[in-house]
Amino acid sequence: MQYLEGQCLCGAVKVTATAADEPKLRACNCVMCRRHNSAAFVTVEVDQDSIKIEGPVKVFRSSEWAQRAFCETCGSTLWYGLVHDGSRHLAAGLFDNAAGGTLVEEYFSDQCPQGYAFAGDHKRLTREETYALFAPGEEKPNDQVR
User: What order do you get walking across the sheet with 102-107 strand by strand?
Assistant: First the structure.
């Protein structure tokens, strides 16, 4: 395990967590992530029980099953969270060199804009496959930002 220390752009929010020695990165190309970040949102897998956050955090409920958090001072994206289990998927950009992680999975790969794409051999899930993973049996949103 490795100990990670990170921060938002202005340094007002400090984040610590533990992760595997070779952390896994995941990228999401959904409409909401792209609007929130102006690109895909990349997260680093950490031990959920190890997450500690200090500073001015604002949480926004972006859908029935998800929320997003950002620094109230500078607006840096901090995490994407699932409402049903309280999990938080921390922004890889909070940590130097994205915590040294490797991209292992990409969500909404069929919605990745033409102007960019992630290289490499990693799992690519379509919109349908992503919804089946995170919200099985639930009605799929119309992908509009709320």
Answer: 41-44, 24-28, 102-107, 123-124
